[in-house]
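Supplementary Note 3. Input sequence used for the single-chain structure prediction.
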Amino acid sequence: KWLGDPAFDAVFEELNRRNAVVYTHPNTANCCKNLLPNIGDGAIEWGTDTTRAIAQMVFGGAAARYANVRMIFSHGGGTMPFLIERFTAMARSAQFAPKFPQGFGGAAARFFYDTAQVANPAAMSALSKVVPISQIVFGTDY
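The predicted structure, written as discrete structure tokens, is reproduced below.
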């Protein structure tokens, strides 16, 4: 289960009550272990895991329900900056448009994103084009 799944509602209710800051770090989901021989799961899957969590938080409604929780996502939001157009289109769909008056970008801009593994021109450029600089926080794996 990813963050935003209803199974975590009781936890998020308490975090929301406390105005908590929640730092997240990806892991390899059971579905996706050892998919490619000789390529560690963290090389590809962790960025995807982070993106799944962001998508579930936004499209599952937890981000809106628990607006007092300040989420920090690792690795610049994973692949989210590169998939932004897909999420933007999804937020405009008949199913989601009423829930996202500011679009996906407005929802994503409420989160924070750390700089671990994105301290390079391509990744940082993508991230800074989809969220305000104020939402990018320092992070490192060292």
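The two ends are 28 Å apart (CA to CA). The chain has one domain: 6-137.
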